[in-house]
From TrEMBL:
InterPro entries registered for this protein in UniProt: PP2C-like_domain, PPM-type-like_dom_sf, PPM-type_phosphatase-like_dom
Domain of life (superkingdom): Eukaryota
Protein name, per record: PPM-type phosphatase domain-containing protein
Domain PPM-type phosphatase positions: 135-367
Pfam families linked to this entry: PP2C_2
Lineage: Eukaryota, Metazoa, Spiralia, Gnathifera, Rotifera
Gene3D superfamilies: PPM-type phosphatase domain (3.60.40.10)
Organism listed in the record: Brachionus calyciflorus
């Protein structure tokens, strides 16, 4: 089997009907898929990752152009109506404590950093561009009896600011539901973007390590703002795409994407000829099953006034013009998992009896078993196939099309489950007896668990690499 054939098998396993899945079971069980994809990835983009940016390669970058091309945030008004509170001091939650010499500069930074957007004339975060785009939505069911959506307000928040030769992408996913979760996400993105916008565009920023230092301090700013506004907890993922001065010893590419993340929001690069590559895989062990209810790390008052930085992850990847860099919340990434989409089942010795009963048979067909790493590889191939569907040989996929393709896919994947629950809400409202209603609702939940997909808030923000 060729490498390209293996890629196609992975995509087929994740996307095809159950009858098609049955045909590739033998291929998957022989691990040809994983070996072939691993071989393919060795020939393509490499992701350098570490717990500290000083362990990553350092490269000279072009001077960052400060002229804005596009900026947008969502859902709804996004970070538009979250006003920053001036800070007397920026505590070091993630970054190294400041020296006395730098402390004087830090005081100046705090006074200058306050609301840097207003100086650029940004009043509404709605300046869209097809190469710089984002979408956020809810996959939860609508309650037509009271005209609400379960899980509202949407606790995901994204923002993107794109200039001629660089772009800043941010995405946060508030932990659990409710206004305070959404507030935490909005505070994190607002404060981090404000800090990055203010301090990246100076002559002092000359290397990728300089960028990481500012990114780290921006997460400190996010943590402080969450605590000040009494938000709950949130994940935060940030990617800064920059143009390099020269091809690096590690790659012939002339662009780099620097990424910092806490939690389970993930970042990727898509190249139509090479596939999808994750920027945040260093935040977890790919050989272990991931508990989708555990975000792994978060900003906010996790331990008193301290964040949980357990899965803090820095990474850099060298990429090329017309590649797509995109960040997603777990409402998107989890629905690409073959177990969640019910195109595979967990290995028998790794799964619980309940999860086996839900995924083992689908329309009477046996599904292939997958290890955690096989699931991960298949998820990437699945993502790649979705994006290739909307890509032509002579045209590049835009950031806007990337966002639309991914959101459309997860909406369709979860449609049957959402429809069942929406009809159930109406039926339950007609049952007057409390015990009968409770029994009906319990049976409804059990039925929904057997359907594919995961209902959640789903967000994506994307940038097409290149000069604008």
């Amino acid at each position: 089997m060729s490498i390209n054939d293996a890629t196609n098998v992975a995509s087929a396993a994740a996307l095809s009907s159950v009858s098609s899945v049955k045909k590739v079971t033998k291929t998957l069980s022989n691990n040809i898929l994983v070996k072939a994809i691993s071989q393919l990835r060795r020939k393509c983009y490499k992701c350098y990752y570490a717990k500290s940016y000083d362990q990553l390669p350092i490269d000279d970058i072009c001077e960052l152009n400060s002229d804005l091309i596009a900026y947008n945030s969502g859902p709804d008004d996004g970070i538009n109506d979250i006003s920053l509170i001036p800070q007397k001091k920026l505590n070091s939650h993630l970054s190294q404590p400041l020296t006395n010499e730098n402390n004087l500069d830090d005081k100046k930074i705090i006074s200058e950093c306050y609301e840097s957007f207003h100086k650029l004339g940004i009043n509404q975060w709605k300046n869209y561009h097809h190469r710089s785009y984002g979408i956020a939505c809810s996959l939860y069911e609508n309650n037509i009896t009271n005209n609400t959506t379960v899980g509202d307000p949407i606790a995901d928040v994204y923002a993107i600011m794109t200039r001629k030769n660089n772009s800043i992408l941010l995405l946060a996913d508030g932990v659990n539901w409710g206004p305070r979760s959404r507030l935490a996400a909005r505070c994190a993105v607002r404060a981090s973007m404000n800090h990055l916008n203010k301090f990246l565009f100076t002559k002092k920023i000359q290397t990728t390590h300089d960028i990481f230092k500012i990114m780290c301090r921006s997460f400190d700013a996010a943590q402080e703002f969450i605590l000040q506004r009494k938000g709950f907890m949130t994940t935060l993922c940030c990617s800064v795409v920059v143009k390099l001065k020269d091809a690096t010893p590690n790659s012939s590419a002339l662009w780099a994407v620097c990424t910092l993340s806490i939690g389970d929001s993930t970042a990727y690069v898509f190249n139509k000829n090479k596939g999808v590559f994750e920027l945040t895989f260093g935040a977890r062990n790919l050989n272990n099953d991931r508990d989708m209810r555990n975000v792994g790390g978060a900003l906010g008052g996790v331990y008193g006034n301290k964040p949980d930085v357990s899965n803090l992850n820095y990474s850099v990847m060298y990429i090329k013009e017309n590649d797509i860099v995109f960040l997603v919340s777990d409402g998107v990434s989890d629905n690409l998992d073959p177990i969640v989409s019910q195109t595979a089942k967990k290995r028998a010795n790794l799964s619980s009896s309940s999860s086996q009963s839900h995924a083992e048979l689908h329309n009477g067909c046996q599904l292939p078993e997958m290890s955690p790493y096989e699931r991960y590889v298949c998820s990437l191939a699945h993502m790649n196939e979705i994006l290739l569907r909307n890509n032509t040989l002579n045209e590049t996929l835009s950031a806007q099309e990337t966002c639309a393709s991914m959101i459309e896919h997860v909406m369709k994947l979860t449609a049957q489950k959402r429809d069942l629950l929406e009809k159930g809400i109406v039926e339950a409202s007609k049952i007057s007896d409390n015990e009968e209603r409770a029994k009906f609702q319990a049976e409804l939940r059990e039925k929904s668990m057997k359907l594919r997909g995961k209902l959640d808030h789903a967000s994506i923000v994307a940038y097409e690499v290149g000069l604008l």
